[in-house]
Amino acid sequence: MSEFKAFSLLESIIDRVALKGYKQPTPIQKECIPALINGNDLLGIAQTGTGKTAAFSLPIINKFGRDKIGQDKVDNKAKSTRSLILTPTRELASQIMQNIDDYSTDLELKTKVVYGGVGRQGQVDAIKLGLDILVATPGRLLDLIETGDINFKALEVFVLDEADTMLDMGFFNDVQTIISKLPKKRQTLLFSATMPAEIEILAQAILTNPKKVQIDPETVTIDLVNQSVYHLEKSNKVPALFNILANADFEKVLIFCKTKYGADIIVKALEGASITAASLHSGKTQAMREEALQNFKDANLRVLVATDVAARGIDVDNISLVINYNLPEDPRNYIHRIGRTARAGKSGMAISFAVENDIRQLTNIENSIGQVIPVVTEQPFHKEFAKAPIQAKKKKQVKKPSRSSKPNKSRAKRK
C-alpha cells in the first residue's frame, strides 16, 4: 500500500503517484507535504533529484482539486492564476509542468507553462481564461506583466524554485521585481540547493514563520554514487569515452562538458561511431532542446551531452552513468552533476576525466566533498600525475545577515 495515503491526499492523486511507481515518500516529501497542506510557508534546502517537485506540487494540486469537487467551487479569475511556480530554465519549467499534469489528471485544473523562445499568443490566451497553476521563467513572465496580460489578484501560493540558480544566472533582480507584484497575503515556498547570503536575506523578507526542511545534497550523492576519475592526456579523452561506452550496461549516459562547441564536437564523434547522441546547450533552439531531452528520456538516444547552464534542472530517470568530460570550475556543480545518476534513492555511477592541468580543480572538488575520488589505473589511457593532498572538510559557518543588508542585484537577459 502506498505510504502517500498517510498525507490524506485525494484518491486520484494517490492513484497517479502509484502509476509513476512511487510508493514511499522521499525525506523531503515526508517533511514538506504535511506542512504545506497545513498552510505553512516553507524554506526547503535540497537539490534537484530529491523529490522536490512532488513535495511542493502535490499539496497545491490537492488544495485546488478539493476546491473543484467541493460544494463551494472557486472560479478562476481572468488574466490571473491561483498559484505561481517560478523556476530558472525552460527545461525545468517544462518538467515541472509535465509532472503537475500527470499528478492532476481527472481533476480539471487549468494549468500552463510559460517561457521565452516560443510564441507568446498561446500563453496569453490560456492566462486570459484564468489558471489554477502557472509555471514560468522570469523573463517571459515579466514580459506578460508589463503588457498587462497577467495579474496576481487571485494568487494564493507562490513557489520560488532553484533560488540559488536564479542568482547564479543573473535573474535575481527580475525575481525581486516579480515578487513586488504579488499580494502580501499568500503562502510562500522557497527552495534552494545552497544558501548564500543573498538567498538568506530574501528568505527572511518573503517567508513568514516558515517550516525549514534541509536535505543534505552531499550526503545523498556521496552515499549513492560510485565515483571514479581517469587521469589521461587531453588527446585521449574521446578514445577513453569510446572505451567506456563499449560497456553495454551503460544504456543511458549523461556527459557534461565545458562549452557549446565542445558538446557538438563530442556528439559528432559519437555519431561517427554509430552511438546515438545529441547535445543540449543554449545555442540550440527551444524546440531542438526539448526534442533532445525527450528522446533521451524515452531512450531513443543513448547519450546526451550538456553544458552546465542548459542541464540545470534535468530530471531524467534511470541515468546509468554521468561522465564529467570537463571538470566543473565550481566544486558545488560536481555534486549537482553526479547526482543526476542517483535519483529517488537509487544508486548510480560517475566517471570524471582529469588532465594534468585539472589536478588543482580535482583537489578542490575532493576538498569540498571531504574524500578522495578513486583513480582508475586499469584503463588503457592512464597517466600518472602528482596530486596535492586533500584537506579535512570544514563545516561551513553561515554568517547571519543584518536586516538592513540588501541582496546584490544583477541584471540578466530574459529567457
TrEMBL record:
Residues 386-415 are annotated as: Disordered. GO terms for molecular function: helicase activity. A motif (Q motif) lies at residues 2-30. Residues 33-213 form the Helicase ATP-binding domain. Keywords: ATP-binding, Helicase, Hydrolase, Nucleotide-binding. Residues 392-415 have a biased composition (Basic residues). CDD domains: DEADc, SF2_C_DEAD. InterPro entries: DEAD/DEAH_box_helicase_dom, DEAD/DEAH_RhlB, DEAD_box_RNA_helicase, Helicase_ATP-bd, Helicase_C-like, P-loop_NTPase, RNA_helicase_DEAD_Q_motif. It comes from the Bacteria. Residues 2-30 form the DEAD-box RNA helicase Q domain. The keyword Transferase does not apply. PROSITE patterns: HELICASE_ATP_BIND_1, HELICASE_CTER, Q_MOTIF. Pfam families: DEAD, Helicase_C. Residues 237-384 form the Helicase C-terminal domain. Belongs to the DEAD box helicase family. This is DEAD/DEAH box helicase.
